[in-house]
Specification:
There is one protein chain. It contains two helices and seven strands; from the N terminus they run E-H-E-E-E-E-H-E-E. The protein has about 100 residues and is α/β, with parallel strands linked by helices. The strands form two sheets. It has a four-stranded mixed sheet with strand order 1-4-3-2, with helices on one face. The protein has a three-stranded mixed sheet with strand order 5-7-6.
Length: about 100
Amino acid sequence: MCIGLVVLYTERLEACRDFYAGLGLTFQREQHGEGPAHYAAVLGEDVVLELYPASSARPATGSLRLGLVVSAKDAAAARPARPARPAGRQLVTDPDGRTVEVLVR
């Protein structure tokens, strides 16, 4: 068994998309039927991270800690105008205040 889908509900959809894209994720805009527009990124082979707008029916995801592993090459490509992320573990905070542990290899 493994995780196949993680959905984050946010009141800062575009800011979260930009934050996670800056870590190396590539998002596609999606909308299923009459549902809300949202973003999806495939991590690895079969894991999907989706960012959905929060609503009264689906409030913003609260405390959550994510751990992402990225290659140094992918991290550098995601941040071309900024210094490369150093190898090792780093704790960063997304626009909603969630802790994201980034391991750069």
